[in-house]
Amino acid sequence: MGAQILLFELPPAPVPRIVFGRTHVNALVERAAELTGMSRHRIIGETKTPDGFLARCAVVRVARDTGRSLKQIGRVLGNRDHSTICSAYRRALELERTDVDFATLVRLLREVSTL
Q1: Given 63, 72, 91, 112, which residue has the most CB atoms within 10 angstroms?
Q2: Which domains does the chain have, with CATH numbers?
Q3: Structure pTM?
């Protein structure tokens, strides 16, 4: 009974592989914004809407799996505390198993990490 994530059919992002933590997380946020049709601000801002939260969780999932620290991710996502990022990561793991649209978003975001 989660929020619906609308994914737009877009070609693979022309985003180069980015090595440093903060810049890499920003690239993930930008790609999530493209894929969901949301603004960057809606993803990283103080919004508590379900779709903004789900996009944030997807960014956290991919960023964390590529070795970014909770602090690095939190800084980019609106200066959120590491415990908030940890909670979003746990939620993302659960959603990835139960929500096909969320799993698709995570898969598409992983492409940014492997370019």
Answers
A1: 63
A2: 21-114 (1.10.1750.10)
A3: 0.80
